[in-house]
Fold this protein.
Amino acid sequence: MTLHAASGDPTQSADSVADEHRVGTSDLHVPGGRFRQYLLVYGLAVLGSFVALSAMSSILLPNQIQLLEVGHYFKGADAGLDLTALTDLKAEVASGAITPTAEQARELGLLGAYEAARAESLSIASALGILATLVIQPIVGTLSDRTRSRFGRRAPWILCGSIVGALSIVGLRYASTIPLVIAFTALASLMINVALGPLNTTVADRVPPSRRGIASALQGLGLLLGAAIGAILASVLFATIGLDAYLPLAIVLALFGIQFVLAARDRSSKLLEIEPLQWGVLLRGFIEPLRAHDFRWAWIARAIILFGYSISTAFSLYMLQSYVQPALSAEEATATAPLLAIALVPAAVIGIVVSGPLSDRLQRRKVFVISASVLMAVSFLIPFAWPTVTAMIAQVLIGGLAFGVFIAVDAALFLDVLPNKLTVGRDLGMAAVATNLGQAIAPLVAGQIVAITGSYSLVWIASTVIVLIAAVAIIPIKSVR
């Protein structure tokens, strides 16, 4: 599951409390019908965004790249080769159970080249999508703060991101080459997050401090449910209409963005007073929180743990075809992959529900994050030692529990180590950069591991080592127990 952290964090309360008294900013909703309507359409908009991101990244994009690479490597007399049987043959040869003939050796060489190209293409597409988001988030956040429109500061960005993101997904459907797939993937990811950042910032704009926990929970639920629903929906649609499955997702993304703007109308920001934008001062400000010792170590630990976790999830669909034994066909893998997303949700929810309140009660954070890192590392060793579908599901259950513990307590940890209460929004934006940075690097590293070794085994070892390093990075934090 790819987790895109939007720059507009719902916890940006310090800035929003000041904004509510300024002309041209949003008004706070009092509990009642209007507030409930806002929460409903906000939750749906978040859900729609993550459904589109999940369906694209977990099912449709890997299948699309796979289809293009199959056509590139297996053509002519090789077009009818059974890749599942060839993968099983590869496992038998690797175990020493069989010596391949000259023709089989040639076919295995072709399979190795295809698997390396498939992994590299997906890793580049995934990484560039997240890197584009990483660059744009602080910029869009700053510009949305300063936007004057009759629909408010955030609505133009939500509307533009949703509609252009939907059009980019349509373009991705008809992309016929790997470079075009990569370009449209990056554009779609970027525009979805152009909408998500200002969308999440509306929580700080409009929700009273005493009710922000509800909105934050909706955001977390939207992420988890969106990941599961997106994978299931994409799997079912791909099995019936192929790559045309992109088109309903584009419609969902556009409609949910539009319905938020129309149903949760904001007041005009045309009279908003803004000071001249000084980009130099702005950019230097993003580095400021990293000078604080505890914030810096929390930032490093988050980037590392999400780096390790994302390496393990980069090629789930391909692992079901080329790593587990017996190997699954492309159709079987596409039908099985949603089970991994489904298994993740209850495990992560349990981790969130239990660890968050417990860490508050015990007034301890570090031990939870360290324990989550260790538990996550243990989960990665299961499919490494036992390459089966059952082991993959077991890994997701245990790793999902660890992930839930991490995301619940790590968020609280960052609030505890904020260096300046007057720059909460900026500093939490930098925390989001750690999230996206780790996820952006992960597919590139995973792709190189597969390309160099010709195997997925070392992906699990790399993930294990990296998340254990993250556990060590938490230790130097001094102000939090």
About this structure: The two ends are 30 Å apart (CA to CA).
